[in-house]
Specification:
Number of strands: 3
Number of helices: 5
Order of helices and strands: EHHEHEHH
Strand content: 5-15%
Distance between the termini: 11 Å
Structural class: mainly alpha
Strand order of the largest sheet: 1-3-2
Length: 147
C-alpha cells in the first residue's frame, strides 16, 4: 500500500523524473531500484521513530485546478532544501518518512466506489484485482495507520 517518499502517484512520463530526483535526494540513491531498497531498509527504524511522515497525495475536491496530489512531494523538497539532515537516512530514527500511500489521486474513500471500480483500481495499483486492499487515498492511509 506504500511506496517510497515522493512516489505515491503512479506516473508513466509526466512528473516521473521529478519524483525520482526527490526520492533519490531523500534516500541518497541514483536509481529507482536503489531508492526502493533504501526505503525498505529505512522502515526498520519505525519502532524507534519519534515523528513519522506519511504522504497522502490526493487531488479529490481540487475543483478546476489539479496539483494538490503533488503536495507531499513539494513539502519533502522544501524540507530537503531547508534542512537536508532532518529527514532521510541522515536523521536516524528521529524523523522517519514512511513514504506515500500509493494512490489514484482523484479518489477519496473506498466507500464511494462500487465493487467494479474497486476491482479495476486494485488491478491498476497492485497488479491484481483479487487482493483485499483499499484503493482510495484516505482508505489506504487508515489501513496503514491501523497497522
Amino acid at each position: 500500500m506504500l511506496r517510497p517518499a515522493g512516489a505515491g502517484i503512479h506516473t508513466v512520463s509526466t512528473g516521473k523524473a521529478a519524483q525520482e530526483r526527490i526520492s533519490g535526494r531523500l534516500y541518497g540513491t541514483a536509481s529507482a531500484e536503489a531508492t526502493a531498497a533504501a526505503w525498505q531498509a529505512s522502515l526498520t527504524a519505525l519502532p524507534a521513530a519519534k515523528v513519522i511522515i506519511l504522504g497522502i497525495p490526493s487531488d479529490c475536491g481540487a475543483g478546476l485546478v489539479r496539483g494538490a496530489s503533488f503536495g507531499p512531494q513539494a513539502l519533502r523538497l522544501g524540507l530537503l532544501n531547508a534542512a537536508p539532515d532532518l529527514v532521510g537516512p541522515a536523521a536516524g530514527a528521529a524523523v522517519l518518512d514512511v513514504g506515500d500511500v500509493a494512490v489514484i489521486p482523484h479518489l477519496l474513500t473506498d466507500d464511494m466506489l462500487n465493487e467494479a471500480q474497486i476491482s479495476r483500481c486494485r488491478a491498476a495499483l497492485y497488479g491484481a484485482a483479487d487482493v483485499a486492499l483499499p484503493v482510495a487515498p484516505l482508505s489506504i492511509a487508515e489501513r496503514v495507520l491501523d497497522r
